Each structure stands twice: as C-alpha cells, then as structure tokens.
C-alpha cells in the first residue's frame, strides 16, 4: 500500500515535472505557447514553405533558425508539446535539474559558441570531481579515495584503448571526422565487452572500467560497439580525466531549456507543437509532409531531424534506403535510466561506481542540500524502475549502505515514442554500415541528428553541428534550384 502511495506521489511529481519543464524557463515557455497558438492559426492545411523541419530538438532548432535567418520560409513541426527533444530542464525542490542532456564543455565548439552567443552561464556538478568513491566489485563494497583510484582507472582505460601501441591515437586521428581514416574498421565488429575480455584487469580496476563502459553505452557492454569508445577517447584527447570533464562536469547555469528557447526566439520559422509527422512524400521537386492528424504541408525541401531510433516510424514515399530503416530498427544502444535520487544522508562530494549488470552503474552528488543530498544516477535498461523509490533505495544501498531515499525523479526516454532511447552509442558495425547512410540525402529530404553527427555524436554539440551543416546544405540546394 505504502509502495502504491509512493508510486502515485511519484507519478504526480512526474506530471509536475512535465509542467515544471516550463518553470525552468517560464518566460520563454509562456512565450512559446502564445507563439504556437498565434502561428498555428496562420498555418492552414496545404500551406507551402521553402523548408519543413521535422523535430524541434537541438538539431531541428539549429536548422530552423539558420535556414530562416538565411531567408528560407521555414515551418518547424514538433511531435511533443515542448521544444528541446532529448533535453528537458525542470526543477526539483528549488533546484534546476536536467532530465536529459546536461553537460557541455568548451571543447564542444558548436554548443559552446551558442552558449556564448546567447550570454548564458556555466555551473559545475560537484560530484564529477568527488572526494569519496564507492565501488561495488564482485558484490563487495570498497570505499576508495579518488586520488588513488582514478589514476588506476586512467591507466586501465589507456590500456583498453591502446589497440595500436600508440594509445589509440591512430584510430580516430581527427576526432571531428570519423571516416578520415579507415583504421577503425578492424575493430568495428567488437563489442565493448569483447575488448574488455581481451585484457587481464584486476578485480577493482575491471569493475571501474566496467562501470565506465556501461554508463557510456547506457546499456550492457555486450551491446555497445568498441569503436565508439575509441572515438570518445579521441574526443577526450586520449586521457581519462579530460574526457570525464568533457562528459560530466559543466552545465548551462540557466538550463538547456534556456538555450533552446533562445535559439527558437531567434528563428523566423513558424512552429507547430504537438504535431507528429506520419509521412513524407516527394515528387516533382516538392515534398508533402503529412501529420498524424491528417494535415499536409508542402515544401521544396525537408529536414528530418528526428532521432535515429524513431526514424522508422515515419512513412516515406518513395521509401528511404533500407539501410536507414535497418539502422533505425536496430537502434543505438543508449536506452537506460538517468534519474535523481534525493537521499536523507549528507554524503558530500561522493561518487559510486558498479559494473553491469548492477542496477546503478554510476551515481554522483549533483547538489548538497540542507536536508540531504541530491544524487544523479544512471542505470542500464531493464535493471531498475526509477519511479519505484523502494527499488531505487535498495539499489543505492549497494553503494551507500543505509541510504534513505526521500524522492526520485526521472524521465522514461526509452518508453517515449519520440526518442525511444537516450544518447547515441553505436552497436558493433554501425559506424561502418549505418553512419554514412543515416546522413545521406534522399532527393530533397535531408537528415540531421546528434545520432549521425561527425564530431560529438550523441551530444548536444553534435545535434547543433548536424543542424548547422544541414541548413547550409539545404540553402545550397535551394539556391541551385532557384
Ligand atoms: C538522459 C540523457 C542524458 C544525456 N546527457 C547528455 C549530456 O550530458 N551532454 C550532452 O551533450 N548530451 C547528452 N545527451 C544527449 C543529447 O541530449 C542528445 O544527443 C541531443 O539533445 C539530441 O538532439 P537531436 O536534435 O538530434 O534529437 P532530439 O533532441 O531527440 O530531437 C528530435 C525531436 O524530434 C521530435 N520528433 C520525433 N519524432 C517526430 C515526428 N514523427 N514528428 C515530429 N517530431 C518528431 C522529438 O519529439 C524531438 O523533439 C543526453 C540524452 C539523454 C536522453
């Protein structure tokens, strides 16, 4: 009964979280709603544009802004009742939290330039550089000091990535251009676990590496492709500490929602929220985009900016290449949980690690509070119901004995039909077989997504890269056509 009550309380909180996404950027969201109503009225069935952009995540927002600012009459169609896609700023008990994409870094040039452009600030996640580390290794809990444990982890990750006797540096010599060298192809069939099994790492070190691999692919390391680790290694300057800072330390002070709103505010595009697209037809130099409600809009070009994992839900006529559909059906591996757990204990700047199949592969302090600690936690798919406070408490106690969970908050990205997953991590062979295909233009239909970005694929930065590059290509196409 108590469990059921807790569940109801959470569901209520979950509902508030959705509304709360607006609270994080109340002004902007109210403005968007008004904008949406006004613009909806002005978009009659059959309306014609230069470009229709499908999806208002960062890839679609960037494309719509850049296209419209370069004079293309642009319509942005978004399935959900909000913009931002796999980012989702909200509040928990007075604190800003991010349910989706969160951390950025100055080495991620696309997002960094947007943050500067719109005058946004940066804050740090304290637990990303912890004072205490808990490691669950073969069922034993170890309390470690990061200054002793992290050099071992760094050294082990260096060995893990050193497939060329040069620290892995020859596999992706240009991190922003994954196909610059084909050296990766030798390793593309390997899973993260295959590579781990090639090394003889000692128990604790193996557990730390296993935990990193599970959070990186957000799944069972047997599912995640090894070459994506080599790609991240290159993006992280071939060094664990630097990579970790780039992945999990700095976030936008005002929230990702503020950046999304600022970009939308600059766009001259028409926007329709709550407008899922069901089909795209093309012929005679025009495209017809039809929504699930049966409305149709026409354009000279389309930018399809939906996640790889949901592309297959849209009907195309003529159909898109089989390889695109196959990649979408297989999906990338990112599909686990990310949630916040408010615990009663004050644990300081703490981090916990445990390898797959433990229910929490990594967790750290996101905020120290007067009434306890707010932890951010990551779990592999199917191992933990993040809505179930008792299950979360039991899982956390493996890392923090006696932890008392006061509340949890997360979003089920894998269950959402418009994302069907979290961040992109390719499966074995997807870089060889799917990456170029997912990017390939089909007639006047262009594809933009963080999931097929060249540099920080799977990141906000990659979404902006892809949106900007695609907008440029579409402008060229439209000019060539004019
Ligand atoms: C839990 C989690 C944690 C993450 N952590 C980080 C992080 O710390 N740092 C980082 O940089 N990145 C992180 N990411 C990844 C990052 O958020 C994404 O890579 C990026 O935001 C994706 O942008 P996108 O525009 O390519 O796709 P999306 O944001 O998914 O946008 C696609 C849009 O298309 C819409 N759509 C889908 N289908 C249709 C349809 N049929 N019709 C109309 N619209 C449709 C969707 O509703 C969505 O708005 C995280 C993601 C998640 C989920």
Notes on the structure:
- By secondary structure, the chain is of the alpha/beta class.
- The chain has two domains: 22-90 and 255-321 and 440-481, FAD/NAD(P)-binding domain, CATH 3.50.50.60; 130-248 and 333-414, Polyamine Oxidase, Chain A, domain 2, CATH 3.90.660.10.
- Helix content is 37%, strand content 21%.
- The chain has 15 helices and 20 strands.
- The protein has helices spanning 2-24, 26-41, 58-69, 109-117, 146-161, 192-198, 203-217, 226-235, 240-248, 256-266, 322-330, 389-397, 430-433, 435-439, 460-481, and strands at residues 48-54, 74-77, 89-92, 95-98, 103-104, 122-124, 132-137, 140-144, 250-252, 270-272, 277-283, 286-291, 296-304, 315-317, 337-343, 350-353, 362-369, 372-379, 405-410, 445-447.
- Strands 1, 2, 10, 11, 12, 13, 14 and 20 form an eight-stranded mixed beta sheet that branches.
- A hairpin with a 2-residue loop joins strand 17 and strand 18 (372-379).
- Helix 3 packs parallel to helix 15 and helix 4 packs across helix 15 (460-481).
- It is globular, with a radius of gyration of 22 Å.
- The model is unreliable at 1-38 (pLDDT under 50).
- The structure holds flavin-adenine dinucleotide.
- Residues 54-60, 77-80, 85-87, 100-104, 276-277, 305-307, 310, 314, 338, 413, 418-419, 422-423, 449-450, 458-461, 463 line the site of flavin-adenine dinucleotide.
- Residues 58-475 form the Amine oxidase domain.
- Residues 1-30 form the signal peptide.
């Amino acid at each position: 009964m108590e469990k059921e009550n807790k569940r109801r309380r959470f569901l209520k909180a979950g509902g508030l979280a959705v509304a709360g996404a607006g609270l994080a950027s109340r002004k902007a969201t109210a403005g968007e709603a008004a904008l949406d109503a006004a613009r909806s009225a002005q978009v009659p069935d059959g309306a014609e544009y230069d470009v229709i952009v499908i999806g208002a995540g960062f890839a679609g927002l960037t494309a719509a802004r850049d296209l419209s600012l370069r004079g293309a009459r642009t319509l942005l169609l978004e399935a959900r009742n909000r913009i931002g896609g796999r980012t989702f700023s909200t509040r928990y008990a007075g604190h800003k939290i991010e349910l989706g994409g969160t951390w950025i870094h100055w080495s991620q040039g696309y997002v960094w330039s947007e943050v500067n452009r719109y005058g946004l600030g940066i804050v740090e996640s304290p637990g990303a550089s912890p004072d205490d580390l808990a490691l669950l290794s073969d069922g034993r809990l170890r309390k470690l000091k990061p200054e002793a444990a992290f050099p071992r982890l760094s050294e082990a990750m260096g060995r893990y990535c050193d497939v060329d006797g040069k620290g892995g540096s020859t596999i992706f010599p240009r991190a922003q251009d994954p196909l610059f060298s084909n050296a990766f192809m030798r390793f593309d069939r390997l899973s993260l676990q295959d590579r781990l099994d090639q090394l003889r790492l000692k128990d604790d070190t193996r557990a730390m590496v296993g935990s990193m691999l599970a959070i990186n692919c957000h799944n069972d390391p047997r599912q995640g492709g090894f070459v994506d680790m080599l790609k991240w290694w290159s993006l992280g300057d071939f060094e664990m500490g630097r990579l970790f800072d780039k992945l999990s330390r700095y976030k936008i002070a005002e929230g990702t929602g503020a950046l999304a709103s600022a970009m939308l505010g600059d766009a001259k595009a028409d926007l329709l929220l709550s407008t899922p697209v069901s089909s795209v037809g093309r012929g005679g130099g025009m495209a017809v985009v039809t929504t699930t409600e049966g409305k149709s809009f026409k354009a000279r070009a389309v930018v399809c900016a939906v996640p790889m994992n949901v592309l297959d839900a849209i009907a195309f006529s003529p159909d898109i290449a089989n390889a695109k559909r196959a990649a979408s059906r297989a999906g990338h591996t990112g599909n686990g949980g990310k949630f916040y757990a408010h615990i009663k204990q004050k644990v300081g700047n703490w981090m916990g690690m445990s390898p797959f199949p433990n229910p929490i592969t990594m967790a750290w302090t996101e905020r120290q509070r007067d009434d306890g600690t707010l932890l951010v936690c990551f779990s592999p798919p199917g191992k933990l119901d993040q809505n179930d406070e008792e299950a979360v408490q039991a899982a956390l106690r493996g890392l923090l004995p006696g932890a008392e969970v006061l509340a949890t908050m997360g979003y089920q990205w894998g269950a959402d039909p418009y994302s069907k997953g979290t961040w992109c991590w390719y499966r074995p062979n997807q870089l060889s077989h799917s990456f170029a295909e997912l990017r390939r233009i089909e007639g006047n239909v262009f594809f933009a997504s963080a999931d097929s970005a060249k540099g920080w694929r799977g990141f906000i930065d990659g979404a902006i890269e892809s949106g900007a590059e695609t907008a440029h290509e579409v402008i060229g196409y439209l000019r060539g056509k004019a």
